[in-house]
């Protein structure tokens, strides 16, 4: 099993969720996060005062999938979240040793 963490632009969330649902992925965790990479931040003016916005709003999607679904899920996220502009995000793929469903005690892929 693998854990996919994808950090994307917030306005792409609905499209990515729908695309993942279409390929059969039904469970995910979504968090509102802030950060920056090469995009850095930017400055804004509010009531005549200029201030720096160092951390930009992003959305982090987390999925735990069987190994055979990972490549298709990653391709789907890339196709759906890509705008071609800086700040489209990143995808991280991590190994998962064990999953346990609290309610039933099921383990491994049965718990996902």
From TrEMBL:
Matches recorded under InterPro entries: N-reg_PII, N-reg_PII-like_a/b, N-reg_PII/ATP_PRibTrfase_C, N-reg_PII_CS, N-reg_PII_urydylation_site
Transcription recorded as keyword: yes
Domain of life according to the entry: Bacteria
Signal peptide coordinates: none
One Pfam family here: P-II
UniProt keywords, alphabetically: Nucleotide-binding, Phosphoprotein, Transcription, Transcription regulation
Subunit and partners: Homotrimer.
PANTHER family associated with the record: NITROGEN REGULATORY PROTEIN P-II, NITROGEN REGULATORY PROTEIN P-II HOMOLOG
Family stated for the protein in its record: Belongs to the P(II) protein family.
Name of the protein described by the UniProt record: P-II family nitrogen regulator
